[in-house]
C-alpha cells in the first residue's frame, strides 16, 4: 500500500512514499539544525520571509495567485523542535493531475518549492527586501505574544521553560522576542546561506508518483555536500535537587491550568520506547486511562486530564484544567495514579486495550499524508526509522513487567500552575 | 432499497437508503484506508430549546445546555461507560454538540461490525440516574470554564450576542455554569424521546467496509428495536429582527494580542436542494474573492500590520440562521473594522473582475478535492449538507458549471450596515480605552 524509496539528487535525499490512496500529493521540505535562540529566531523569521517573495513571484500576492492557478495548491511553512534540533519546514499540497484537465501540477509544484528555497526575491544589493523583513518581524512578534493568549498552551510552554532551564529544549521554535529586534538584513542573509550550506535538508513526497517522475521533477535542484555531523543524542535532563519544584503563577483567568513535568529517560530510538508508549497510554493517553478515570470520571475535578510522552527528550507531561482550590487534591490523585503504575496495578485487559488503541492510532495516522510524513521524518531525526509493521509488532510485544519497569523510571520534576488571584 | 451513486468528478461511489423506521443510512467505501469512521447524528442541537415534547400538546422551554448535557450522559449505561466498550473493541469514540446537531462517532481499524452495533445501541438506549446526572455537572462546569478562558471562543459568542436579539444561536452551546445545575434526569429523557427518533437521525459510514454486509447489519439491528410512531417535530424559534442588536462590544481578557471579529446577520434563504447549495457556494466565493489571500485587499491589510495568518472569514449557514464573520488577531481592532468597512464599500461600488472569480473557482475546487482525503470531513459534511436538504457530492459539479458573475448579485443584499456588528477582545492590562 505504501512503497518507500529513497532517491538522491546530488546531496539531497528524497523520501518517496508512493501510494494511490490520496487525492493530493503532499510535499515537505525539512531543514534541520541545532536548536539555539539565535538560530530559532532567525529561522522563524526566514520561514515567513521566504514564503513572501521569490524571484519570479516577487510579492505575497503574486505567490498566492500562482498557487490558486495550481488549483488551490497550498504552501505553508513552519518551525518546530524535535529534541535538541530546530526544524524549518515547507509544505506544499497539490491536487492530483487526474482530477484536473490541465496537468503537470506535480512538476510545477516541485519547481515552485525549489524557487521558494533557492531563488528568493533579493534587492539590488542582494538582500531580502527590508520592507518584507520589517513586516514579518512585526507579525512574528505578534505570534510570540499570542502564545500567552491560549492559556493551556502557555502553561505548557512555561512548564518546559521552568523544567528545562539552561537546556536547548527550553527554547521556543519561534525564538526569542528580544533577539528578534536585533536581527538585521545582514544577519538574516548570513543565516540563510549557512542554512543552505550546512543544514541537513530532506524532501518527503507522499503521492502517486514513480521514482522516475520524481527524479525528473527534481533534476535541476543543486545542493552541495553537507559538513559531516555526528548523530546527536538529546541532552538529558538530570535532576540535581531531590525536591519537586512547584511554580505558581497568577493570571486573570477563571480556571486553573495545571501542567506537571516528569523526567522519563526513555528515548525514541530505545528498545524500551514501545513500553514507554504503552505506559503513557495506560497512565493518561486515553479515555480508559487512569487519569481520565480518576481525575475526571470518579472525582469530577476536570474536563480534561491527560498525559503526553515526549520521546524526543525523555519527558512526560500531565495536563488538567481544574478549580484552583483543588490543586492539592488533584496533584495527589495524579501521583497516586503513577504509583499504581509502578505497583503494576493495572489489569491484563487494560494492558491489551491500551495496545489495541495505540495500534489503532498508528494505523489511523497512516491514513493521513501529513502524519505519514511527520512520523517518517521524526524517525529520521531521532535515529530510528520504523515502518508500520515493525512499530505494531513492537507495541504488541510489550509485557506488563516492561511497563512496570519503565514506570519506575518516571520521576516528578516540576509542578506548574497558572491560576486566578482569588483561590 | 439501497441506491448507488457514482461521482465521476471525485472518483467516489456512495450508497444510501432510508430504513422503515425512518433512519437514513449512507455508506462511502474507501477501500485503501485502514480505518473506518462512523457518525450517528441527530438533527438536534443547542438552539432547540423550545419545542413540543413527544406525545404532549403544550410546548416547553428547557434549561440552556441540555443538548450538550445529553451528549455527555448518553455514554453511560447500566453496565458502565460506553467509551470502554469502544476501547475494548479498538475504537476511539467521541461526540460533539453544535447549534443544530448532536453527533456520536467512532473511528477504528478493526471490529467495525461490533463497533457499529455499539454505536447504534448506545445512542438508542438512554440511561440516566439522578446521581450520575449530578456528578456530570462538575465536569461540564469545568468544560464551560475552560471555554470562558479562551479568547477565540469569547470573541465569537460576543459577536453572536451582538447580532442576535431573540434567536437562541446567541446562547452558549454548553449553557452556563448556572443553567446546567437546573437540568434534571426527567428533562433529559424528555429531550431524548423527542429528538432521538430514528426519523430525525442519520448514520454515515466512511471507510474500508463491505456495503452489503454493513447495510444488512444496520437493518437487522434496527428491525429488532421498536420505536413510537414518529410525530412531526414542532420547534419554536422566535422571529429574529433584521438589524443587529448593537454595533460593538469590547471585552477585556488576559491576552497580549487583541482580536476583532466582524459579523453581518443574514436572513436564511428560502431555497432548498441544489439552489441552496449554489447559494452557499456563491457566498463562499464572494468572501474568498474579497478577503482571500489572493485578493489585493488581504495583501494591503497584511502590509499595514492589521492582520496576520489568523485572519479568517466564513459564511455560516444552518437551520434557521446564517451570518458572515470576518476577523482575527490584530493590534488595532478599531482600525481593522474601519478598513474592512472601506473594502466592503469599494467592492459594492466596483464589483469584482471576472478573472478573479475564475481563479477563486479553481481554488475552491482544488481545496474541496483536498479535503476529500479526510474520512472525517466526508462524514461530517455529508451529514451537515443532508440535514439541510443538500448533497455534498454536488459541490464540484455546481462549482464547475456556475456562471461566476452570478456571485456579484449577492452584493445587493449582503453587507447591509444595519445588520452588522463587531466584537473585540482587548488586553486587560492595557489602560488605554479602545473606544
From TrEMBL, chain A:
Cited InterPro entries: Metalloenz_LuxS/M16 (IPR011249), MPP/UQCRC_Complex (IPR050361), Peptidase_M16_C (IPR007863)
Domain Peptidase M16 C-terminal positions: 183-358
Coiled coil (residue ranges): none
Superkingdom classification of source: Bacteria
SUPFAM superfamilies: LuxS/MPP-like metallohydrolase (SSF63411)
Short name of one Pfam family: Peptidase_M16_C
PANTHER family found in the cross-reference section: INACTIVE METALLOPROTEASE YMFF-RELATED, METALLOPROTEASE
NCBIfam families from the UniProt entry: YfmF_fam (NF047422)
Official protein name in the record: EF-P 5-aminopentanol modification-associated protein YfmF
Top-level taxonomy: Bacteria, Bacillati, Bacillota, Bacilli, Bacillales
Primary gene name: yfmF
Automatic annotation (TrEMBL), chain B:
Residues of the Peptidase M16 N-terminal domain: 64-176
Gene3D superfamilies: Metalloenzyme, LuxS/M16 peptidase-like (3.30.830.10)
Chain ranges of the Peptidase M16 C-terminal domain: 183-363
Any matching Pfam family: Peptidase_M16_C
PANTHER family assigned: METALLOPROTEASE, ZINC-DEPENDENT PROTEASE
Protein name, per record: EF-P 5-aminopentanol modification-associated protein YfmH
Organism: Aliibacillus thermotolerans
Gene that specifies this protein: yfmH
